[in-house]
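Operator note (shift B, R.M.): manual run for ABM domain-containing protein requested after the automated queue skipped it. Running by hand, logging everything below so the morning shift can see what happened. Input copied straight from the record, untouched. If output looks odd, do not overwrite the archive copy; leave it for review.
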Amino acid sequence: MFVQVIQGQVTDAERAHAALDQWVAELAPRATGWLGTTAGVTEDGRFIALARFESAEAARRNSESPAQDAWWTEFSSALGGDATFHDTEDVVVDLQGEPDAAGFVQVVQGAGSNPERARELMGQDSEPWAEFRPDVIGSVAALYDDGDYTMAVYFTSEAEARVGEKKEPPPKLKAQMDELQSLAAGPPTFFDLKHPWLYSPS
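Run finished. Output pasted below as returned.
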């Protein structure tokens, strides 16, 4: 899988949302290899999107389309300044349900001191974690060579997520969580998408 993360400050959230709706309706049917997009705007106007493709080649073909270029020109006019892009094929997916059913998405960005170990920890004990946190539908993590990462975590609702994050995990899961947190190189940045825009091929 290939993930492109796009982010920037938005000046007109409704216009940006409408533009993404337009992309899905008009351009997505021709975007071969597109797997879905998770996007939204935080309460302080930060836009972030994770666009998923089967491969970097599929994403490249889409970006080279004249229709895509025209659409981006229109979409970017809803942003206050330039957007930034982060691309990777190092993606870890952990799903217990249907992400498009999420009522709340939290995107986390940060850096780690040991990406390989972090990847191992994220791949362990999916079933016990799902039992402990039934509010978590799943996650998609985009990892970069320098240890940076962007992770989208899908929740049933924000209210259930807030209750879940206060629960004390059992010892084994707590040890994993503590080790993962110990690998962080500085505090992470959170994007709370209270009204996520969730798209997938029809």
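Quick read of the result: The helical segments are 13-27, 56-63, 66-76, 115-122, 126-132, 158-164, 171-182. The radius of gyration is 17 Å.
Leaving this for review. - R.M.
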